[in-house]
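A.,

Following up on our hallway conversation. Structure tokens first:
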């Protein structure tokens, strides 16, 4: 079955790409870092040096490469949706709210994306060093008093971490995200959470519309009840694989887009749930990673679900109270 192999290969390739990007963008974690470092070394033997420099500047210095890639992917997906799916759907007279929902969600998503990229994540500077130091208590398990950052020459506030890419200590450091070319910290984690949520919902709404469309095509054409004559001359009732294959041959790009969206939803949805879970338990990715290596779970900074969300969505009120 040629078609099935093609599709399996495509799905495999996609999963591979998505996992590589996930690993690369979360490269601050230690063991993975070792694996990646070795992979980089292995690649350095085969890749030309200009390409290596390019890759290294994408991941180790601030660069807009992933921001651009993100926007290009958005554009491709929506060009396909607008150019191919939309007019079929309008002919089928589906609920118009469903049809335009992806556009509303992507607009929201782009706004949060912009905010993530452009909002200062909470750099610790000379002016606000003492303010930052007063926000969180040191737990003496993950964060120790009287720790000076050797690069910034400032005291390290609890829950902060120095980001080598941004060249600064970041208050309530979460991680450095290459997709937004910025750190995620105290002042932009709220935009990042909303960005992830809106991106997952955008992908889900697109997938829903396309699925409804393909189902309508199957139902209207009575494809499931159709029979075909196989190469041996026997009459066969159309099976599900046959129907999928038929859809694929009729709308190849739409079916590929749907496959891409499903895999994206799987990975992105999982990651979104994970980060929201950390948010309501008041932990950062950095602390989650550190805690796994410390025997006996550290106490943490939780103040109850509402308190934790308030801390994330109103990052300034907490500062004033402690001052
Ligand atoms: C500290 O002040 C700088 C500007 O001097 C600002 O960009 C940064 O976000 C402030 N840090 C925090 C944690 O508010
Ligand atoms: Zn620093
Ligand atoms: Zn950074």
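Then the amino acids I'd put at each of the 323 positions:
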């Amino acid at each position: 079955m040629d078609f099935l192999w093609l599709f399996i290969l495509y799905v495999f390739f996609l999963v591979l790409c998505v996992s590589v990007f996930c690993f690369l963008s979360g490269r601050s974690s230690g063991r993975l870092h070792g694996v990646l470092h070795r992979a980089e070394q292995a690649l350095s033997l085969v890749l030309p040096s200009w390409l290596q420099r390019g890759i290294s500047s994408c991941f180790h210095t601030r660069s807009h490469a992933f921001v651009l890639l993100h926007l290009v992917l958005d554009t491709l997906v929506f060009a396909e949706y607008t150019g191919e799916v939309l007019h079929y759907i309008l002919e089928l007279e589906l609920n118009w709210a469903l049809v335009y929902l992806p556009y509303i969600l992507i607009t929201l998503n782009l706004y949060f994306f912009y905010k993530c990229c452009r909002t200062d994540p909470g750099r610790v500077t000379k002016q606000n060093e003492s303010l930052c130091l007063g926000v969180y208590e040191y737990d003496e398990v993950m964060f120790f008093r009287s720790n000076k950052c050797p690069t910034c020459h400032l005291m390290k506030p609890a829950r902060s971490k120095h980001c080598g890419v941004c060249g600064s200590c970041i208050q309530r450091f979460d991680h450095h995200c290459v997709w937004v070319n910025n750190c995620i910290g105290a002042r932009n984690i709220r935009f990042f959470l909303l960005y992830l949520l809106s991106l997952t919902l955008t992908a889900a709404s697109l997938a829903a519309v396309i699925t409804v469309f393909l189902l309508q095509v199957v139902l209207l054409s009575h494809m499931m009840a159709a029979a075909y004559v196989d190469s041996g001359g026997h009459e066969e009732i159309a099976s599900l694989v046959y129907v999928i294959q038929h859809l694929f041959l009729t709308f190849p790009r739409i079916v590929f887009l749907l496959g891409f969206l499903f895999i994206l939803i799987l990975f992105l949805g999982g990651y979104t749930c994970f980060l929201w879970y950390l948010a309501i338990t008041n932990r950062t990715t950095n602390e989650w990673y550190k805690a796994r290596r410390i025997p006996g779970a550290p106490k943490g900074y939780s103040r109850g679900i509402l308190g934790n969300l308030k801390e994330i969505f109103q990052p300034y009120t907490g500062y004033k109270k402690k001052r």
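The beta strands are 161-163, 168-170, 175-177, 182-184, 227-229, 235-237. Curious whether your intuition agrees with the design.

B.
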